[in-house]
Amino acid sequence: MTENQMRLEIEKLKAQKNIKIFAHNYQNYEVQQVADYVGDSFYLSKLAAEVDCDQIIFCGVKFMAETAKTLSPDKKVILTVEDALCPMANMISAQDIIDFKKEHEDFCVVAYVNTTTQVKAAADVCVTSSVAVDVIDNIDAENILFVPDMNLGNYISEQIEGKNIISWNGYCNVHDRVRKEEVIQKRKEHEGYPVLVHPECRKEVLDEADFVGSTSEIIEYATNSDEKGFIIGTETGVLHTLRNMNPDKEFELLSPSLICFNMKKTTLSDVYSAAAGKGGIEIEIEEGLRKNALKSLENMIRLSG
Ligand code: 13P
Ligand code: SF4
Predict the structure, then answer these.
(1) Which atom in ligand 2 lies closest to the alpha carbon of residue 89?
(2) Is the distance from the beta carbon of residue 114 to the nearest atom of ligand 1 less than 6 Å?
(3) Is pLDDT of 305 > 80?
(4) 109 with 98, same domain?
(5) Could you tell me the pTM of the whole model?
(6) Is the link from the previous residue into 194 a cis peptide, with omega within 30 of 0?
(7) Any idea what the CATH number is for the domain that residue 67 is in?
(8) How many domains does the chain have?
(9) Does the ipTM surpass 0.90?
(10) Are residues 9 and 81 in the same domain?
(11) Ligand 2 contact via 279 beta carbon (within 6 Å)
C-alpha cells in the first residue's frame, strides 16, 4: 500500500470506528499529519477526558497513552508501538515513593506526568511541564518531593518562593545531553536568535536561555514573537509545527542530540495497523490502580488554574 492509500484508509477507519488520533509534538511528520490533535502532554491529557469518540489511537510514548486511559476509562486506548517507552518514567518506582512517605509524612509528593500509572497512584499530585509551576505554587503544603526529573524539579524550585522542593535524581536522556557550550556556539552562528528551551534541560542550559517552556509553549512563543529566527532547545519533532505555522521564520535545533528515538518509533504504517485493529497495544489498567492515579491527575487539573 502506498503512503497516500494508507492515509485514505486511515481517514475511512477513523470515520467508521469513531477513532480520534492523538499525536505528541515530537512525533514524525507523517504521523502528525494524520492526527486529529497534536500537542503537549497537558493539552493531550485534558483532551482525552473531554473528547467524544469510542477509541483513541495514541502516537507518543506509553505513559501518555496510560494517562489518556486513566482519564477516559470508557474509551479504547491504543498505543501505536508497544515498546515506545520514556526511560525517565522508569527512574522511580511506586515503592520508592511509599518508602519516602514513611520517613517524611509532612511531604506532598508531586509526580511529573512522565511516570508509570503506579507512580501516579502513589503520588499526591501530578504535573506536566506547562503547568508545574502553577500547580505546585497552589499546593497547600510547604514540603514537596518532586519526581523523577531533577532538572525540571530544580527549575520549579527556582520559580517558587516559600516552599521546600526537593527533587528525585531522574532525567531525560535526550534533553539532559545538551550542554551550555552548545548554546554559546549556536548563538555565535545565529546572532540575535532567541534561545527557547524545554525545562528538562540542565540548569546550565536554562540559565543561558531566553525562554523556558513546554513543547506547545515554545511553539506559541515563537509564533507570537516578531523575531525572525529562533534556536530551539527541545526534541526535533516540534520543528514541523514551528515551520508550518511560521513559513517566514527560521528555526535552528540547539543540539543534534535532541532526538527522542522512542517518540520516533511510530510510523504511518503503525498508525494504519492500529486503526485497522491489526497492531499497537491496547492499554488496560486495573480499576483500583486507575482510580488512585486519577486522583493525582484530577488534582493537577484542579490546581492548574
Ligand atoms: P511536553 O509536556 O512539553 O509536551 O513534554 C513532554 C516530554 O516528554 C518532554 O520530553
Ligand atoms: Fe521521555 Fe525525554 Fe523522550 Fe520526553 S524526550 S519522552 S522525557 S525520553
Answers:
(1) 1
(2) yes
(3) no
(4) yes
(5) 0.95
(6) no
(7) 3.40.50.10800
(8) 3
(9) yes
(10) yes
(11) no
CA of 149 to the centre of ligand 2 (A): 11
**Cβ(149) to ligand 1 under 6 A?**
no
Q: For the sheet with 107-112, list strands across it.
A: 125-127, 107-112, 143-147, 164-167
End-to-end CA distance of the chain: 47
Domain containing 162 equals: 88-171+288-303
Instruction: Give residue 46's pLDDT band: very low, low, confident or very high (50, 70, 90).
Output: confident
Q: Establish if 258 belongs to a structural domain.
A: no
pLDDT of residue 100: 98
Give the number of the atom of ligand 2 that is nearest the alpha carbon of residue 149: 7
Domain shared by 140 and 269, yes or no: no
Distances (CA, A) of 35 to 24, 203, 266, 270, 284: 9, 34, 12, 13, 22
Ligand 2 pocket, residue 262 CB under 6 Å: yes
Tally: H helices and E strands in the chain: 14, 13
Q: Are 197 and 205 contacting, i.e. CB atoms less than 8 angstroms apart?
A: yes
Q: Is the CB of 88 under 6 A from ligand 2?
A: yes
Shared-domain flag, residues 122 and 79:
no
Does residue 23 sit within a domain?
yes
Give the pLDDT mean for 156-177.
97
CA-129 nearest atom, ligand 1: 2
Average pLDDT rounded to a whole number, residues 219-248: 97
What is the pLDDT confidence band of residue 42, given thresholds at 50, 70 and 90? confident
